[in-house]
Amino acid sequence: MKNVLRAVKRSAVIGAVALAAFSLQPAGASAGTTGASGTQPVVGGTRAAQGEFPFMVRLSMGCGGALYAKDIVLTAAHCVDGSGNNTSITATAGVVDLQSSSAIKVKSTKVLQAPGYNGNGKDWALIKLAKPINQPTLKIATNTSYNSGTFTVAGWGAAREGGAQQRYLLKAQVPFVSDASCKASYPSLIAGEEICAGYSQGGTDTCQGDSGGPMFRRDNAGAWVQVGIVSWGNGCARPNYPGVYTEVSTFASAIASAASTL
C-alpha cells in the first residue's frame, strides 16, 4: 500500500476484484434504483458487450489486469506480495458476466513484482499463468504519444465509493489530466511514472477493487493500446481528485524484459 499521505490504493478491501466506472448521477437518483429495463444501474458506466474488451482479466486477490501475453497478466505491483512462485491467484477471463459458465479460469504459477518497488511509483507486476488464455492481448504504449485525449476504463468494480462489486463488466471514459494540474491535487505525484485522468467536477473514476486494471485508448491505427494501470486516488470520483495510474510507457522496456524471464 502507498502511505496514507498519498491517498489509498484501489485494490479491493477484501478479495473480490473490480474496476468501477463512475459518472455524474442524475439529481434524485440513487445507485440502488432499478431502471426501466429492470437492471440495476451503476453510477456512470454502461455495460460492455461480450467480446468488446477481450483482454480484460479479473484476479481473485481483489484486483484487475489485462492480458499482456496469452499466458501473462499485467497488473499493479501493490496487488501482489513480492516475486516468486505463486499458485494462489485465479485469473478469470473471456466473459462480461462473472457468473457465466463460459468463464475461463486459470491459476497463476509465478509473480514478478516491479524491481525496486517500495510502495511509491513503479506500480506494475506480471502474473504468469499455468496455461495460455485464448483471448486477444492488449499492447502497451512504448512512448508518451498516447498520453493525451480520452481514455477508457472497464471492469467489474464498485458503483460508488465503498460500494459493492458488480457482476457485469462496465465501461466508462475519463479525460487526460496534465501533471501540473494533477500535482495541484496530489503534491506527491511522481511525474514520469504516474499519469492522471478524470473530470475536474468528479463523477467518473476508477475505485475500490480496480487496482491493476488497464486504462487504454485507440492508437493511430484504431487498435487499443494500454496507457495506464489503475493505481491510487483520493476516494472515488471526487471533484478535483482524478485517478492516478501507472504510466505504462515509462516501464515498457522493463515490462518486456521481465516478461521474457517468465
3D structure, described in words:
It is a single chain. This protein has 262 residues and is mainly beta. The chain folds into 2 domains: 7-25 and 44-49 and 140-249, Beta Barrel (Thrombin, subunit H); 56-137 and 251-261, Beta Barrel (Thrombin, subunit H), CATH 2.40.10.10. Helix content is 6%, strand content 31%. The protein has 2 helices and 16 strands. The protein has helices spanning 179-185, 252-261; strands spanning 8-9, 46-47, 56-59, 63-69, 72-75, 84-85, 90-93, 104-113, 125-129, 139-140, 150-155, 170-177, 194-197, 214-218, 224-233, 243-247. The strands form 2 sheets. The protein has a 6-stranded antiparallel barrel. A hairpin with a 5-residue loop joins β14 and β15. The longest helix is centred in the C-terminal third of the chain and has 10 residues, at 252-261. It is globular, with a radius of gyration of 17 Å. The model is unreliable at 1-6 and 13-43 (pLDDT under 50).
Keywords:
globular, 2 domains, 262 residues, Thrombin, subunit H, mainly beta, six-stranded antiparallel beta barrel, six-stranded antiparallel barrel, 2 helices, disordered N terminus, Peptidase_S1A, signal
